[in-house]
Amino acid sequence: MASNKQSVTPPNQLSPNLRGVLWALLSTAIFALVAALAKVASGQYHVLQILFIRQVVVFFAAVPSIAGNFPHSLRTQHPKLHMIRLIGAFLALSCSIWAVSVLPLTTAITLTFAQVFFVTLLAMWFLGEPVGRHRITAVVVGFVGVLFATRPGVSGFFDVYALVPILGALGAAMAVTSVRRLSQTESTGTLLAYQAIFVGALAGIPMFWLWEAPDAQGWMLMIGMGALSSVGQWIGVKALRLGEASVVTNIQYMKLIYAAILGYILFMEIPDSNTLIGAAIIIGSSVYMMHRERRLKIGAEKSAFAGPRN
């Protein structure tokens, strides 16, 4: 008698790209909060001191993952790619803190969205990822929303401080593109350990001259930033393992929405109507991309179910 039992394991309804997008949404929210906390801390402490303490916490968070198999856990087959990624990470992290210390939170975060253009190009050139017209359209529309929300004038782009987050965006694109390839062969603990050691060392050397003893509130603030950064990086790496870099990075536009909320709560920044309209465009761009990924998943499942025709 044939069994009527069906598999109790539910089929996975989400494509890798869509799952990567969902994880990226959470990671983006965490890093928006870290940026807001960095703006608070930068009012009293040097940018490199904030970065140094943050990276020390990130390093200790990565220790359990690498200690069990040390020193094999630090071995890599791609030292040059690690170096590119680490240089990019230092630029991205240091410039992100510097930017929020000299620019309004929403402006600093908005200008980092140049990362999307850099990642799309690097993913196409070095990772061979397909970047079709739908993804390019989503990126362009999302950035139009950013411009609409901030209304930058010509003088804004020639402000020397505006170059800080753009440089950080280039560094972030280098790091993201490298992680996309490295995450296929390296553990998350190894990726975080290399970054914490390298970035921490570069930020730590100037501490001989720049260190200012934090008070209890300062310690809590900067250690909290490090803990949140650790969680955000773990989630971000998971997103990049699942989804293509040019897809996952598009979700960074949502950081503007988070920044507007945090700016209001922490700094009494009130978004105007243009900001709200721009935010709607940004959200629409991300939702469109997620919807298209879902449709592609359903189409692929239908094709597989139908099978070849004779």
Features:
310 residues, mainly alpha, 75% helix, globular, disordered N terminus
Q: Which sheet architecture does the biggest sheet show?
A: none
Count the beta strands.
0
Contiguous runs where pLDDT drops below 50 for at least 5 residues:
1-11, 154-158
Order of helices and strands: HHHHHHHHHHHHHH
Average pLDDT taken over every residue? 76
Strand content: under 5%
Structural class: mainly alpha
How much helix, percentage-wise, in residues? over 70%
The 3D shape can be described as: globular
Membrane topology: Multi-pass membrane protein
Family: Belongs to the drug/metabolite transporter (DMT) superfamily. 10 TMS drug/metabolite exporter (DME) (TC 2.A.7.3) family.
Subcellular location: Membrane
Keywords: Membrane, Transmembrane, Transmembrane helix
Kindly describe this structure.
By secondary structure, the chain is mostly helical. The chain has a domain at 16-130 and 154-246. The chain is built from 14 helices and no strands. The radius of gyration is 21 Å and the shape is globular. The protein starts with 15 loop residues before the first helix and ends with a helix. It is a multi-pass membrane protein. This is DMT family transporter. It holds the Pfam family EamA.
